[in-house]
């Protein structure tokens, strides 16, 4: 794809990139702490991943290969637009394959395939403050982080236990990073939380609306909050992926007609494709997938 | 002090790409503390600065960053002129006010006197860049913490004993802390505030 003219490499001007880069370095030095930064206007609305895009724009270089996913899929509107944006403004190579990518910008999923050292995972974050729904004042949440005063979140999880008998929070599940800062992992399903801990890849988080950047360096402990008698658990399914037969990936429920028929498929489309290429088959393998999609 | 134009040298040939590459090197060493990387995007550095220090300043400093220079550097016309010309960074005399402090290994400020940020905003602390005579992965310091799977070895030559002791002790104040870059020739490494430092043994610590 041809590179856009009239813009700097990767859209942002150099001064903005330097400011964001300095914020990223501080974020990496204080794992899980939210660094305020001067968020810039991007040519798409807040809520479409402007925070992640500003981080990507500041990190990306000519040699990078970019993958963008939205809920695990490479071919949804948000992922396609952002991938095209960087192909256009930075002229970088893009890919849909997790193993090939050096940078992966993600909305609300971590790829199923384990990430490697020197890959960078960039999360789009809507609300970076895990305590915001408990305490609306920024001045107070700052103090709570400074004093490591996180009891209120345990109370919130306990309310789940009291009401439902188990911790009902299923995404955006709060974590403790390096035993110090409570962090919002962005609205990834709690299924993905364990992947964050001791991950060989660098994880960067960008919140455009709230203008915060935070980070988890490689090989850093990330623990999901829980109780001794209600340990942290991830979702599981009785079904396997209808396309690739995977019984260990995060599954999406897809309604296939008006009579209540449904199937479960991998949310990570690249992982599913990889498994099909390796010869794995699911129950719907004989169905033409295109037809399933159009019903 | 004004800029002396006869001291000016060229910066990056391709400022956009080179700044990005140097930042990625800085990100690599900051997120994997103690890793040694080479940065090689300039022909020369102002007399008195190592090439890695010079490239870091070109990549990270601008009019928004207050910079403190250790006495020898602050008296060096080539360093000051080039920083003023290429980065337009304000130079401050009091190291407690600096966002970035650049020091020779023999002229290190007391860590305690740098800006440590506050409990609410620990990111506002000074980042210290130190030029040292040698960097290597010899087993001298054993590093552990975020960014290090098990442990990593690092030897930074030429540091005064008192400074080493202060640096090791400063870990107790986390999340407050001073993040450091270490520069030697083209080599670069970093020790953020999270990295725990274990000297090999006290006998070697003294040499």
Number of helices of chain A: 8
Oligomer: heterodimer
Residues in β-strands, percent of chain B: 15-25%
Q: What's the total helix number of chain B?
A: 6
Q: Could you spell the SSE succession of chain B in H and E letters?
A: HEHEHHEEEEHEEEH
CATH architecture of chain B: 3-Layer(aba) Sandwich
Largest sheet of chain B: 6 strands, mixed
Could you tell me the mean pLDDT of chain A? Answer: 94
> What is the level-2 CATH architecture name of the largest domain in chain A?
3-Layer(aba) Sandwich
Query: Any idea what the radius of gyration of chain A is?
Result: 20 Å
- For the record, what CATH class of chain B applies? Alpha Beta
Summed up, what is this model?
The complex is a heterodimer of chains A (295) and B (207). With 295 residues, chain A is α/β, with parallel strands linked by helices.
Protein model, in words:
Chain A: Catalyzes the breakage of the C-P bond in alpha-D-ribose 1-methylphosphonate 5-phosphate (PRPn) forming alpha-D-ribose. Chain A: Belongs to the PhnJ family. The complex is a heterodimer of chains A (295) and B (207). With 295 residues, chain A is of the alpha/beta class. Chain A has two domains: 14-224, Rossmann fold (3-Layer(aba) Sandwich); 251-294, no CATH class. Chain A is 27% helix and 17% strand. Chain A contains eight helices and twelve strands. Chain A has helices at residues 14-29, 50-59, 77-89, 138-146, 151-164, 193-196, 269-277, 289-294; strands at 35-36, 65-70, 93-94, 103-107, 120-124, 175-177, 181-183, 202-207, 212-216, 222-224, 251-255, 262-266. Chain A has a seven-stranded mixed β-sheet with strand order 1-9-8-5-4-2-3. A three-stranded antiparallel β-sheet of chain A has the order 7-6-10. Chain A has a two-stranded antiparallel ribbon with strand order 11-12. In chain A, helix 1 (14-29) packs across helix 2. The radius of gyration of chain A is 20 Å and the shape is globular. The two termini of chain A are 33 Å apart. Chain B is built from six helices and nine strands, in the order αβαβααββββαβββα. Chain B has helices at residues 15-31, 51-60, 71-74, 77-87, 161-169, 202-206; strands spanning 37-38, 67-69, 100-104, 127-131, 135-144, 152-156, 179-184, 187-191, 196-199. In chain B, the strands form two sheets. Chain B has a six-stranded mixed β-sheet. A three-stranded antiparallel β-sheet of chain B has the order 6-5-9. Chain B has 207 residues and is an alpha/beta fold. The mean pLDDT of chain B is 95.
């Amino acid at each position: 794809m041809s590179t856009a003219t009239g813009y700097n490499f990767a859209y942002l001007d150099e001064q903005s990139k330097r400011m964001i880069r300095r914020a990223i370095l501080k974020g990496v030095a204080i794992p899980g702490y939210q660094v305020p930064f001067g968020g810039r206007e991007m040519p798409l609305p807040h809520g479409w991943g402007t925070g992640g895009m500003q981080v990507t724009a500041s990190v990306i270089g000519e040699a990078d290969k970019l993958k963008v996913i939205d809920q695990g899929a490479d071919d949804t509107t948000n992922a396609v637009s952002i991938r095209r944006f960087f192909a256009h403004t930075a002229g970088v190579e893009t890919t849909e394959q997790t193993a090939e990518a050096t940078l992966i910008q993600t909305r609300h999923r971590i790829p199923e395939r384990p990430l490697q050292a020197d890959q960078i995972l960039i999360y789009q974050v809507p609300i970076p403050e895990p305590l915001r729904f408990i305490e609306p004042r920024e001045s107070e949440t700052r103090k709570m982080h400074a004093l490591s005063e996180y009891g209120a979140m345990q109370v919130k999880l306990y309310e789940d236990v009291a009401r439902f008998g188990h911790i009902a929070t299923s995404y955006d599940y709060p974590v403790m990073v390096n035993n110090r800062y409570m962090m919002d992992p962005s609205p990834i399903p709690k299924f993905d939380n364990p992947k964050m801990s001791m991950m060989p890849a660098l994880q960067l988080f960008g919140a455009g609306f709230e203008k915060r950047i935070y980070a988890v360096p490689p090989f850093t402990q990330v623990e999901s909050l829980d109780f001794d008698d209600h340990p942290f658990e991830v979702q599981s399914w009785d079904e396997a992926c209808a396309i690739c037969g995977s019984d260990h990936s995060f599954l999406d429920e897809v309604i296939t007609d008006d009579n209540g028929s449904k199937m479960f498929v991998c949310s990570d489309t690249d992982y599913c494709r990889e498994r099909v290429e390796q010869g794995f088959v699911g129950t719907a393998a004989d169905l033409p997938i295109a037809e399933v999609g159009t019903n | 002090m004004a800029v002396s134009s006869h001291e000016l040298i060229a910066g990056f040939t391709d400022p956009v790409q080179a700044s990005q590459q140097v930042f990625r090197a800085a990100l690599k060493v900051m997120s994997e503390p103690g890793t040694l990387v080479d940065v090689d995007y300039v022909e020369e550095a102002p007399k008195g600065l190592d090439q890695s220090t010079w490239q870091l300043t070109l990549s990270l400093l601008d009019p928004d960053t207050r910079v403190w220079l250790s006495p020898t550097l602050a008296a060096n016309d080539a360093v000051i002129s080039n920083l003023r010309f290429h980065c337009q960074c304000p130079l401050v005399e009091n190291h407690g006010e600096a966002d970035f402090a650049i020091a020779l290994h023999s002229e290190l400020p007391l860590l305690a006197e740098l800006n440590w940020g506050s409990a609410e905003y620990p990111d506002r602390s000074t980042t210290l860049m130190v030029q040292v005579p040698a960097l290597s992965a010899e087993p001298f310091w054993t590093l552990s913490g975020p960014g290090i799977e098990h442990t990593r070895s690092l030897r930074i030559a030429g540091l005064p004993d008192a400074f080493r002791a202060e640096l090791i002790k400063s870990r107790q104040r986390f999340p407050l802390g001073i993040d450091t870059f270490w520069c030697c020739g083209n080599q670069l490494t970093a020790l953020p505030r999270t990295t725990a430092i274990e000297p090999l043994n006290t006998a070697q610590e003294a040499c």
